[in-house]
Amino acid sequence: MTETPDVVLEVKELVKRYGEITAVDGVSFSVRAREIFGILGPNGAGKTTTLECIETLRPVDAGTILLGGLNVRAQAQEVKRIIGVQLQSSSFFDKLSLAELLLLFGEMYGRSVDPLALLDEVELRDKSRSQVVQLSGGQKQRFSIAAALVNDPVVIFLDEPTTGLDPQARRHLWGVIKRIRSEGKTIVITTHYMDEAEELCDRVAVMDAGRIIALAPPQEMIDALVARGFRKERVERLASLEDVFLSLTGHTIRDE
Amino acid sequence: MKNFVSYLRDPMRIKWMLTLASLKMFFRQREAILWTVLFPLLVVVLFGFVRFNGMGRISLGVVNEGGAAGADLLTRIKNVRTFEVSEGTRESEMSELRKGERDLVLVIPAGYVPAAATEMTAFGDLEAKPQVTQLGGLVLQRVFDESAFAGAPGLRRTTLSTIPFKSRNLTYMDFLLPGVLSMSIMQAGIFGVAFGFVSLKKRGILRRLWVTPIRPSDFIIAQVAMRLLVILFQMTIMVGVGVLFLNLHFIGNLALIYLLGMLGAVVFLGFGFSLAGISKSEDQVAPLANIITLPMLALSGIFFSRSNLPGFVGAMTSVLPLTYLADGLRSVAIDGATLAQVTPQILGLGLWGVVSCALAVRLFQWE
Ligand SMILES: Nc1ncnc2c1ncn2[C@@H]1O[C@H](COP(=O)(O)OP(=O)(O)OP(=O)(O)O)[C@@H](O)[C@H]1O
Ligand SMILES: [Mg+2]
User: Quick check: B23 pLDDT over 60?
Assistant: First the structure.
């Protein structure tokens, strides 16, 4: 194994337009090895577009993207071999079982994978014979993470993996994501849940209207805000409704 | 990098794996079996059945070697509603009988005299069409008797003996099955591909594939291979069921049948991919696919012979791809046509294949 450079992903002055709209407008950031890097921002900020440019799905209008030392625009095919991708909206073939799908995806990388081991990673072993249509929302998200792992990627991109999940399922997925990171992978994730970003991410970039308007570890951002004199109007409550929900329904994952 | 090398070494493997996976997906859809095999067979059986019952009249060929007296008898026979009479030489009528176009052929011998005792012979396939030949014989006998009474009441009876004749006894089913087979190939190519692909596109399944290193061409090749294999399967089942259970008079060269079928499949797959290329949703596919297929279903001689079409329509529709396919399959299957005899059809399909594949390449879009 060659020595992994500290920065695995470097995006410089990325610009992407859809006709009149400039969806990504000069975005630069770099992601370090083994980091969980979050991208936050309101709907339409350009998060998905940024990820899709990095994932080789969209032609770029300007800027450079280096991933694992490869130039994404020039070496798309090689880049595809070292990334794992969960798209915000995509689905899988019907009529194939989870195990068959993972085997097929492995073949696309010329690998023969062990589907059960991959399903273990996301705790779906007992669903190996099910089809994707038979899974719950949370299970689907976990399956698409398993599918993103078939090629033992260097960097994994997760676009809103927890949107629409119940609090337990989200926490469960957090566990999965942390474990994947602990196995030496770098993760880039987008989310609309601030608690999730705070819990998972080493650093977050906040995007708005196609630009990055802040980039720092979550705690630093909070500290900086407080230092500017910000105070919550209401004093910190001892518990939130989410805490109530979790204590009522239990912390274990509901997956039947 | 190790994997990259192994990928380069074995570029066929992923195509085959994708083909296999697509076949699995195809055959796990219950509707797929229904539409590709059961429905076409049902059409054959149903149409064949309906046509048989509608056909009350007996097709009688008459060979008149008996001059004016024979012509007089012929007129009497023509007045009988039960018969649909055609007149011809011994050779031509016997050949029609052999094909099954006639139920019975009556020969009026030279020197026939109505009131004199004469032996008359008719030919019919007693084995394949026992009722029709016997009924025809009885009715003919009555006509002879009437004609004998009219001439002179001396009453010397002309007797009819029916000589058994082995005909190929081609039925409407024989005409229909190659036609319906062509229709199913067209439907599988156009509807199967267009709907299938648009749904993959719309549901983002293709996008998920493009972040893996497979090439779009790998996927297209696998899709085409899968469809061709399914069509081969469909052809085999239909011909098999036709011969084994529907009493199909199949005398053609099977390899030639498959060759024509595959050529037709390529033509219609090209149109299917073209439609998939320009459509964003199933709603857009359906009308376009119908505009292409419905006129051909009506005018390509699938269910009824094209010989009844008015001249210019007949000429125009003779160059439709479905016409080439149906004509080719039919003449190989039931007339035993050779490669040389179906060369026009093969060339026609080849030309259409070039057109449809070029169109597909021009129009195809992934997003
Ligand atoms: N295929 C497309 N064609 C045209 N415009 C697009 C396309 N995809 C996205 N856009 C536009 O680009 C902008 C950024 O979209 P993007 O999907 O990147 O936002 P996002 O930050 O991921 O939003 P969300 O949080 O809702 O997922 C939006 O204004 C959107 O309308
Ligand atoms: Mg998005």
Answer: yes
Encode pLDDT of A85-105 as tens digits. Answer: 999 887 899 899 999 999 999
- pTM over the 0.90 mark: no
C-alpha closest to that of A28 among A45, A13, A6, A49: A13
Which ipTM did the prediction report?
0.88
For a mutational test of ligand 1's pocket, the pick from A47, A51, A213, i.e. the residue with the most ligand atoms closer than 8 A to its C-beta, is A47
Domain with CATH 3.40.1710.10 in chain B: 58-164
Top-level class of domain B58-164: alpha beta
Pick from A229-233, B1-5, B97-101, B345-349: least confident: B1-5
Q: Whose CA is nearest to atom 30 of ligand 1?
A: A44
